[in-house]
Design goal:
206 residues, alpha+beta, Nucleoside Triphosphate Pyrophosphohydrolase, four-stranded mixed beta sheet, 4 helices, binds zinc ion
Length: 206
């Protein structure tokens, strides 16, 4: 069933409204129209400036308790669809701080940010491409309350993830979690990832 959902998400993507400038942001000269569906950098032949269109960074936190995953029902874009609590990294903001902030805003829960569980490029919206990082989260404190940008926040068993998930890459993460939780690989991964964090990543952050 999950594979079908992914297919549906991917084939629904229409390559329209790709991020591009009509006028050069530096000098105001008009750009030649780009072919339909073509994004990426634009070079201004008038002021010789290249304008880059790069993906933004999204962060998500996986909170899994008793084989159940915390999901939020979205309020803004992708309204009434479910996702793993997530958001965009702000300018000058550390990715882990961003992940904890977004999670708190959407669920009311304070989490410690653990190791990176997954990282994917998100192409489901061609005009707003992102790089997503899914962190493992550990609940510290707080009461589960959907925040202002979430209509609901609820734990779902990994075998009963809702069909109306907003993002195809979230579905991939949910599928992998379900499989890894069933065959014990998740525990093995977590053990080695936490050891790796202790012995390597923490050193890097000193
Ligand atoms: Zn220019």
């Amino acid at each position: 069933m999950m594979a079908t959902l992914i297919d549906r998400h991917l084939t629904n993507g229409k390559v329209t409204n790709v991020m591009r400038y009509t006028f050069c942001p530096s000098c105001g000269s008009q750009f030649e129209p780009l072919p339909q569906g073509k994004g990426g950098r634009q070079y201004c032949h008038h002021c010789h400036t290249t304008h880059y269109h790069n993906p933004t960074v999204g962060v998500a936190v996986v909170l899994l308790e008793d084989h159940c995953l915390l999901l939020v029902k979205r309020n803004g874009s992708y309204r009434d669809q479910w996702c793993i609590p997530c958001g965009h990294v702000e300018w000058d903001e550390d990715i882990r701080a961003s992940a904890a902030r977004e999670f708190k805003e959407e669920t009311g829960l304070q989490v410690s940010i653990g190791p990176v569980l997954a990282a994917f490029s998100n192409f489901h919206d061609p005009s707003h491409q992102t790089v997503g990082i899914w962190f493992w989260g550990i609940r510290d404190s707080g009461a589960l309350t959907p925040g202002s940008d979430a209509a609901d926040a609820k734990f779902f068993p990994l075998s009963g993830i809702p069909e109306n998930m907003a993002f195809p890459t979230d579905i991939r993460v949910c599928e992998a979690l379900k499989k890894a939780d069933t065959d014990g690989a998740l525990y093995q991964w977590l053990t080695s990832a936490v050891q790796m964090e202790r012995s390597f990543s923490l050193l890097l952050r000193e």
